[in-house]
Write a structure and sequence with these properties.
single chain, mainly beta, Porin, 8 strands
């Protein structure tokens, strides 16, 4: 991940040097504001959706009018919600419960973007695909009721980092030769190994779980082409 950060810094210096040398460069900067949906789930204990605000910035280098390379930063924001969860089958019993979940995340992105010509007026379709170096934090507490009448409390706290593919698509409208606005939807999927700790009556223990943290951003983007 350190090498990726060095690459991002090098790209920023390249942008600055290019702008100093050429008034009509092939670079653009993009500012993002988004409604961010956090979808948190584990194998047996959690299924929660929360909404918050996200933001980001990216720098693009345009190889051609329709192909560009991009490096950026995205912040998925912080989210918290309470949700109802029902397990179909576990420990020879059916149980339901209420969970309170928190999550936050951020990352450095590296991607390629493809755009069409004008499909109508000054509007283009844009598709983006790449990798994100992410950092996420997740936690939840839950109280469950079994059909047998027994209760169980559980909790999990998880910090992790890694890399995952992502993609986005949207429409861009050119206000003029320099400025454009776009609407996009971005999809990021994160999977980590976690452990859930539980207390049920006189017994307690821990259970390995796969934690899935999916982020969906519905974004409005402002782009300036240097």
């Amino acid at each position: 991940m350190k090498s990726h950060n060095i690459m991002a810094i090098a790209l920023c210096f390249t942008v600055i040097q290019s702008l100093q040398a050429n008034e009509n460069s092939n670079f653009s900067v993009n500012l993002k504001y988004a409604k961010a949906e956090h979808n948190s789930s584990t194998d047996n204990f959690l299924n929660s959706k929360q909404n918050t605000q996200g933001k980001g910035i990216s720098f693009d280098y345009h190889l051609t009018p329709h192909i560009s390379l991009s490096a950026g930063y995205v912040d998925f924001g912080k989210a918290q919600s309470d949700s109802f969860y029902a397990s179909p089958y576990h420990w020879n019993d059916v149980y339901t419960g209420v969970t309170s979940a928190r999550s936050k995340g951020k990352g450095i992105t590296y991607s390629a973007k493809l755009s069409t010509g004008n499909i109508f007026s000054k509007t283009k379709f844009i598709f983006e695909s790449g990798l994100i170096d992410w950092k996420v934090e997740q936690s939840y507490v839950g109280l469950y009721q079994f059909t047998s009448g027994d209760t169980m409390e559980s909790y999990s706290m998880n910090k992790d980092k890694g890399s995952s593919p992502f993609y986005s698509y949207g429409l861009s409208y050119s206000l003029n030769d320099k400025v454009s606005l776009s609407l996009s939807q971005e999809h990021y999927k994160v999977k980590t190994d976690s452990r859930v700790y539980y207390f049920a009556g006189a017994s307690s223990g821990e259970i390995p779980q796969k934690m899935r943290q999916n982020f969906t951003l519905n974004s409005i983007n402002l782009s300036y082409h240097f």
